[in-house]
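Standup notes, protein team

Yesterday: finished cleaning the Labilithrix luteola set.
Today: FecR protein domain-containing protein structure.
Blockers: none.

Input for FecR protein domain-containing protein:
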Amino acid sequence: MTEHDDLREAPLDRVVQEAKDAYLPGAVDFDAIEASMMKRIEAEQAPLVEDLRASSLRTRLMRGGALALAAAAAVAIVVRREAVSSVPESAVAESLLVDTNHAAPSEAIAGALRATEGTGDVRVAGESASIGQVLRAGDVLEVDGSRAVLERPRKVSWVLERAHPELESAAEARVARARVKSAGEPLVLGLEEGAIEAQVTPVPQGEAFAVDVASGSALVRVAVHGTHLRVTRTNGRVVVDLTEGVVSIGRPPRTGSTYGTLVTAPAHVEFDIADLDGSLRVDHTPDRVRTALAIAHPDLVAAAPRATAVATTAARDSNAVVEPSEPQDSPSPPVAAPTAAKPSTPHAEGVTASPSVPKGTSRREAVAAAVRECAAGKRRAADVRVTVTSSLHLKVRANGEIESAQFDPPLMPEIQSCAASVIYKLKLDESGSVSVPIEFSY
């Protein structure tokens, strides 16, 4: 490097040095910084300590208030229990009998024993039952040489008795037994022996009442949403006598409505529990249907009298036969007496009662048209439209009469009931197993 080169680099070195002096920090006095921070902390400590003390005071006050409220609640519970215990049990039972609609859902009330007939025993959970006793889910009702009449106000009245009380002698009689499987909606009873006869108030949607019969691993459900029926079980043989409405007989689903064979009144049905499909027989001859019991509704509440459709029909029928009931401690009207009332078929609300069949329509098309007209009676929101596709499987006798009908997949119960009122009145020009495709929108 020459002297000339040194002279050229000298100005550059000065510029670099000036840049270093301007951008590199000088010596940092950490002690001074720490001292300054400690002074600021000491100056701000007093307000923080006051806040902490105030927070502690609030916590102590809240704990004290909580203890006081807990003590007051304990006193209220003790007083409430004393007040409840002072009410007679009979009064509690009577209030549950009269107004079960307002009971808490957790109580799962299935109904109450309204009356008994005969000199035998009526037991609930193995203990002698008294009038007004409430049944809940899981309870077992037994009737030995008697008849028990139960009621779920404004929903269903039902009778449990021996399978054939008019034929069985005292030595042949078996104890009638039923279990409350579900006390919700619908009310489901498991019939183990004997007969259940029920008058069911129709519901707008779904099923209102069902009777289950089981044998081994086989389980069959007879489901209704408004009808009068009798289900009789002797060992594994079941007989259903239907005087009003429509029932569905099939396997109970996990949820939703029962998928099975639709049967409309009047009908006498027989089947074996272990072989439902192979043994099911349906006879719509009115003379084959057992005479229905008139399950009357005495006025449990004077301000709210109730009467069933069967009782009303019996009152109109001049040929109705009313047998006197057994003497009881207190006077009461006859509880259940046979009536010769003509079977009828009620229809669900909001569904066309009697679909019309246009003249000149083929029998198969008449069946499909009846289903479509029933579906048209269902109201939906104006901006919602549902299209349904199903198949109707019919079992047709040699003379063209329809013995049984089954939708696959099932339709809404109220649509099925409405359609059945027309389907069973038709005669087809074919026999055996017939399938009719169903498609409609509503």
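Follow-up from PR in the comments: DSSP finds seven helices and 22 strands in the chain.
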